[in-house]
Amino acid sequence: MNRRDLLKYASAPLLAGVASAAPGQQPRLRSALCAYSYRAELAKKKMTYSDLVTLAAEAGVDGLDMTVYWFPDTSDSFLIPLRSLAYRHALEIYSISIRTEMTRATPREREDEAAAINTWVDTAAKLGAGHIRVFGGKVPKNATEDQAAAWCVETLKPAAEYAGKRGIVLGLENHGGITATAARILEIVTRVDSPSVGINLDTGNFDKNAWAQIEMLAPQAVNVQVKSEIRDDAGNRVPGDWQRVIGILKKAGYRGYLALEYEEKDAPANVPRLLRKLDQMTRQSG
Questions:
Q1: What residues have CB less than 8 Å from 230, skipping those under 6 apart?
Q2: Hey, what domains does the chain have and what are their CATH numbers?
Q3: Residues 48-67: tens digit of each pLDDT
Q4: Of the four listed, 25, 90, 185, 221, which is most buried by Cβ atoms within 10 Å?
Q5: Distance between CA atoms of residues 22 and 19, nearest Å
Q6: Total-model pTM
């Protein structure tokens, strides 16, 4: 993507059909925990998803983003009790996070990917979640970025149509590959042109110039994942500066969750403390 394209998408704060903040809208921020923070414990079965609900409630946050990678299954016997438990703890399972690869090279593969997303839409609906975090995918070998972006758009369009019928928003994350830059992810979401597709803004996923790119995506964010660290303009890892993130989101009129996604190795020790800090900051900020 060249500089002209970058400026084109950066200068369009409100894009047709894209789920986004309304101009002048009062921000409304809520705290949440992303299940991926406890990936090691969930993978080794040292923690259950029910344990995660209890932990999040005790930390005082409002919501839970359920990374689905370690779900034992997607049967009603698993999903419905989990939803009920969250309700009894006054906690909202507002989102699920899934793995997707929407840059597949053949039409059949892209159809299969969209169908797989539809299955997760049904799962999200059973949990009461209104949002699903999705990935764009890698740029396949022997393909150009422009081709991969077009394939991603082709996959997202039918998935967005199905998600919209269930009242669910798909948040395309800045997650490397075809969504490595703010300009490219804005291009994809604009081309999909659906109120059921927005941006899942991850503050820790840009390799450089993170703050400028966060500001570009904030007006189109439908969910935000905050990290304990961020990369500065030179690409060095530095503290995440949540207050600055909140300032950007408030300026954009963001209404939604800030979910802690903790990626350091000492998660059990640090996550509850950081959750309390995040909850306090969001409540003070509106």
A1: 203, 204, 206, 210, 211, 237, 238, 239, 240, 241
A2: 25-285 (3.20.20.150)
A3: 999 999 999 999 999 999 99
A4: 185
A5: 9
A6: 0.91
